[in-house]
Amino acid sequence: MQLNMTTDYGIRVVLYLAQKNSVTSSFEICTNTGVPFSYMHKIARVLKNADIICEKRGATGGFELKKTVDEISILSIVRAFEKTININRCLEPDAFCSRNAVPHCAVRDFYVKIQDKLNEMLDVKVSTFLKSSQNVSAVPVDMLYTA
After folding, report:
1. Which of 69, 63, 10, 1 has its CA nearest to residue 36?
2. Could you tell me the fold of the domain covering 5-85+125-136?
3. How would DSSP label each residue in 53-122?
4. Angle, nearest 10°, between helix axes 37-49 and 5-20?
5. 16, 22, 32, 45: which has the fewest Cβ within 10 Å?
6. Do the Cβ atoms of 60 and 21 come closer than 8 Å?
7. What's the pLDDT tens digit per position in 20-65?
8. What span, in angstroms and rounded, lies between the C-alpha atoms of 79 and 16?
9. At what angle do helices 74-81 and 5-20 cross, to 10 degrees?
């Protein structure tokens, strides 16, 4: 499984808004996260539909988090953007198996364990990426994304 670039951009936007902790313009978000301005509208729409961010209109408008950093997980952001995060087709809701072996397949049981671990690891809260203190001084975005 590989996350698509739009998902990565969505994570960047949420982490930046968490760092800023205030209404932030699209221009500022894009300038400081490397998210192309042409993608910002699409990313914002997906994040708004997932109730992760909200938009403030007007001269001092922009975007801000709709939930607290302790309520937003990386998993919730990934799920907002990805069609599926399941590592195999047999883990989808319809449990499709070309061998009709779903009820007794040892490989599927192994996939379930991997999927559960992946979901658990992605369930990290956005607050984890911020310095923990009363003054939520954030990790610079360039420190969150190292090449």
Report:
1. 10
2. Arc Repressor Mutant, subunit A (1.10.10)
3. EEEE-STT-EEEESS-TTT-BHHHHHHHH-S---SSGGGSTT---TTS-GGG-HHHHHHHHHHHHHHHHH
4. 80
5. 22
6. no
7. 999 999 999 999 999 999 999 999 999 999 999 999 998 889 999 9
8. 19
9. 140
